[in-house]
Amino acid sequence: MVDLVVAIHTVVKGVSAIADKVVAEEEHPAVRYADRTGTPPSTATSGSKTDVSLFHYSASTSHVFLLVYVDDIIMMGDNSTLIDALLRRLSSTFKIRDLGTPNFFLGIEMLPVKEGLLLFQRRYMGDLLTRAGMSDCKPIATPASITHAVVPNVELFDNPTQYKRLAGALQYLTITLPDLSYVVNRLYQFLHAPTTEHWGLLKRVLGYVKGTLDYGLRLSVSASCDIHAFSDTD
């Protein structure tokens, strides 16, 4: 059960050395940083095999996770004493500033709720609608039509750069709105030569975004560690 979240902002490039070390030693899961960073040998972190920005530290039955992005870190763990100790070790090696519990990180807003966190991107969504000139558009209940199929259209959209930028921005929005994953993937299939029909599809997605400004992704504590997967056999 995670009971504490701490955000750290580093003001030097020292954290990059940690990331470089993990990339260079992916074959060694328990990476020690004493040789490059001067971190005490007792501080050993394991780098994720799937994400070079994610690190894991364990001590007895306690666990701490560190997510690094350039010179920003989010630290999360189930033992506040251990987190404080790691913060002291980091501050002895790098010049850091503890920002406390995070509320905004890389465009994602975090709101503490009962037994968890609510992640949402209302500010990012508003900026996206403004860039598309659709701040005052009418909200749409669904991101895509289930009755209207895409038909061949030879009329190319006159601003393909705008299409590509907005489609890319929608991709980042799927972090807190995973229900957009399918339709955004469809939009990506037409990046090379979007037509006016494809632009219409993208605008419909933005209309759906307008109607989901207050939606977010709830992360809550689970009593079970079982993984459940769902699939459409059709």
Explain what the structure shows.
This protein has helices at 14-24, 34-37, 80-93, 122-131, 160-173, 181-188, 196-210; strands at residues 4-10, 30-32, 44-47, 54-59, 62-69, 72-77, 96-100, 104-105, 108-113, 116-120, 217-220. It starts with a strand and ends in a 14-residue tail after the last strand. The protein folds into two domains: 4-102, Double Stranded RNA Binding Domain; 103-234, no CATH class. The chain is built from seven helices and eleven strands. The strands form two sheets. Strands 2-3-4-5-6-1-7 form a seven-stranded antiparallel sheet, with helices on one face. 32% of the residues lie in helices and 24% in strands. With 234 residues, the protein is an alpha+beta fold. Helix 4 (122-131) packs antiparallel against helix 5 (160-173) and helix 5 runs antiparallel to helix 6 (181-188). Strand 8 (104-105) and strand 9 (108-113) form a beta hairpin.
